Amino acid sequence: MLSAACRTLRTFSHERFAHVRGKLPRTAGWQPVLPNMKIDKAVVLAAGRGTRMRELTAEVPKPMIEVRGKPVLQHIVEGLRDAGVRKFLVIVGYRAGTVQNFFGDGSRYNIAIHYATQTVQDGTGRVIDLAREFVGNSAFVLGYGDILVDPANYKRVVDLPEDVEAIITVTRGEDGSKGGAVFLNDEMDLLDLREKSQPGEATSPWYNAGVYVFRPSIFERTAKLQPSPRGEYELTDAIRDLARSGRRVKGFELSGEWADVRDPEILAQLNSF
Question: Is 27 within the bounds of a domain?
Fold first, then answer.
């Protein structure tokens, strides 16, 4: 069995999910009440090799590793497409040609895919600046190329309420030392974010699930970023700054199951069902 920090999926796309530790409550978290903006653009980060995958990524980037017969990135693209997203920017880097040759211009998926190349691996806060021109004045979904979620969630996050500047998706029961602890109030408004918390630090039941919705105002915040103690430009620092500036950033609890395809052990669990 995996540790409490690791989740997995039985199936994805339009199939039912089940995870190795049992069912999660299917709660909506927060229900928008104002008219919503329908989002049709997505940015997917797919530049990394994934060194924890060891020899599995010798020839392909981590987002192209197959889970139940499809690359992880294909599950993500199809889920967003089925939620109404038609314009994609995929940010590539390591083994970029593998991604580009597989997806092409997106026409066989009835979408349009553009590409940008990350040449310096200096953190998630800098890489999304590559999406400025693609985004323009539009809101957009941002996702990591190694995160799998129940695709029903995409249909919910692409409806952005008019009074919300950004959405950060969250899930429960994960180890904050392996990712981001998210601090929310009772109204699911963002109070704080902490990356890879250390023993003794304040804890939260909410874990950063790695799918976001932003308006272009996020670029105002990423432009001001300074390197973190890890020496990287952290997207979470920009999100925290956005919330503290008075803009409304909401937490959104994912329904169904969630998986961070971070290492061979999780991959083996995913492919064992």
Answer: no
